[in-house]
Amino acid sequence: MTKATEKALLPAGLTDGLPPNAAFEIETRERLVAAFVARGFDRIAPPLVEFEDNLLTGTGAAMAAQTFRLMDPISQRMMGLRADITPQAARIATTRLSHEPRPLRLCYGGEVLRIRGSQLRPERQFSQAGAELIGSTDPRADAEMVLMAAETLRMLGIEDIKVDLCQPTLVPHVMADMYFDPDAAAAMRAALDAKDAAEVKKLASALGGDARALFVKLLAASGPAEAVASKIAALPLSGAAAEARDMLLDIVRLVERADPSLDLTLDAVENRGFEYHTGVTFTLFAPNVRGELGTGGRYMAGVNEAADNIDGEAATGFTLFLDSILRALELPALPAKVYLPEGSKRGAGEALRAEGFRTVEGYTSGDDARNEARRLECTHILLDGKATPLGDL
After folding, report:
1. Cα-flanking dihedrals φ and ψ of residue 238, to 5°?
2. What is the pLDDT of residue 2?
3. What pLDDT band is residue 304 in, cutting at 50, 70 and 90?
4. What CA–CA distance (Å, rounded) separates 202 from 171?
5. How many Cα atoms within 13 Å fall on the side-chain side of residue 207?
6. Given CA atoms 85, 91, 94, 98 in this order, what sign does their dihedral have?
7. In a designed cystine with 341, which of 146, 267, 315, 365 is the match (CB 3.0 to 4.6 A)?
8. What is the pLDDT of residues 86-140, one digit of tens each?
């Protein structure tokens, strides 16, 4: 292995952003954040590294296993490299912005780093863009997040977006009413996540016929919203389980009323990947695109000790993943690149850039300038004050 190759070798899951892809990713992320800002969300820019005690509390606790840690040589305290930006937004909302009127709307864009990738997303460093709505329990806030996520993806040119809505608190509420012991609850949770109907029936049989029938119905309550919403509405639930079910259906109705064309699917039992969420969650997909385009849902935005709020603040939001989004988009053609021969007037380059050209400062003139322009992969050269295509020469 040559020394040059050794220097180019990076750890698994990390890559160099190269032209033109790097510029396209950053431009796309900024377009998303600009769209959030235009919808009344204020941009924040949290640091890449925080003290571990702050980063891994509240919603951040769910990311502890994915967080790189290091010692701060100044304070001698442990710090963490962010694995997700949502917990940072929650911290900012409940501390520095605790005095702002609610609901508080925040948005962000930036890089995150995780200890390991997943099967669908092997990348360990990737870019996020997201929005958080903090301080409202109204289902219209959840619907706003679903609709805004889908609308901004469509703005980029991604069509046929599918939104999978779940209520991860529903099954825990059902099991709490049936007094599952911890081991049995974990086994049932695993069987439901795996959609293992035989195992679900087996585990539920010990609780009696009514319980067995309910869990079978819960497992069957997944699919297109128009086909399964009525099944979910008919589930014999009560108490907190019924409230969780009704919240899911309220959000479905709000989204369908606002955008009947949006492709919605429902899943009454899915829980994986939503460990810190406390209400309705959603995932966005596009056909033939590896990995989810984004995820979101309801959670508690940390602890606000100044307000004596030990349970945190109601919040909902979403995060979009740029690596998946870019796989759904075509790389746009770059603007034409004009070679400016040595001695060209500064004003000529400024005028060309104002017209949308890119310019390259040249160190040669005459016939050598044309050869140099081709070597540097320029499409045009400045001749007689005009951008002339090299193909015409």
Report:
1. -150, 170
2. 54
3. very low
4. 17
5. 23
6. negative
7. 365
8. 999 999 999 999 999 999 999 999 999 999 988 778 889 999 999 999 999 999 9
Please check whether residue 308 is in contact with residue 336, taking contact to mean a CB–CB distance below 8 angstroms.
no
Strand pairing of 337-340 and 358-361? parallel
The answer to whether 147 and 258 are in contact (CB under 8 A) is: yes
Phi, psi values for residue 37, rounded to 5°: -60, -40
Residues 248/232, Cβ–Cβ less than 8 Å: yes
For residue 144, give the amino acid letter. Answer: E
Give the residue from 390, 377, 388 showing the smallest Cα distance to 352: 388
pTM for the model stands at 0.91
Phi/psi-derived region of residue 376, left when phi > 0, alpha when psi is between -120 and 50, beta in every other case:
alpha
Tokens of 167: 């209520």
287: its two tokens:
């056909």
Nearest to 276 by CA among 305, 252, 255, 297: 297
Cα gap 160→286, rounded to integer Å: 6
Convert the pLDDT of each residue in 21-44 to its tens digit: 999 999 999 999 999 999 999 999
Q: Which residues pair with 319 in a beta bridge?
A: 130, 295
Q: How far apart are CA 107 and CA 318, in angstroms?
A: 10
- Give the mean pLDDT of the chain: 90
* Rounded distance between C-alpha atoms, residue 259 and residue 251, angstroms: 12
Tokens of 107: 């948005």
Q: Does domain 11-157+292-320 have CATH number 3.30.930.10?
A: yes
Cis peptide before 103 (omega within 30 of 0): yes
